Amino acid sequence: MEEQKILLTVKEFSKVSGLGENCIRNLVRVEGFPALKNGRKFMIHRRAADKWLEDMAKHAHSGCAAM
Q1: CA–CA separation, 6 vs 45, rounded Å?
Q2: Contacts of 48 (CB under 8 A, 6+ apart)
Q3: How far apart are CA 48 and CA 62, in angstroms?
Q4: Which of 19, 46, 48 is nearest to 32 (CA)?
């Protein structure tokens, strides 16, 4: 069984979420989005980010630009 990483880079999270890298870079700066800065890179908590995006989708259907 393949072990899934808990923390993902912007590029990795972009691939698994289907969102563009620029969108993810904007999201990591949104208050409440589950990301932390490690040097110059942002690391995203995969499960928490999935839940955060799901919760946001329930409240707004206007896409990434509105977040």
Answers
A1: 6
A2: 34
A3: 21
A4: 48
Query: Alpha helix (H) ranges present in 7-66?
Result: 10-17, 21-27, 46-59
Q: What are 7-47's pLDDT values in tens digits?
A: 999 999 999 999 999 999 999 999 999 999 999 999 999 99
Which tokens go with 44? 């995203």
Amino acid, res. 34:
P
Tokens at 9, concatenated: 């880079």
Question: What DSSP designation does 65 have?
Answer: G
Sheet holding 41-45, edge to edge: 7-9, 41-45, 35-38
Question: What tokens appear for 6 in the block?
Answer: 């808990």
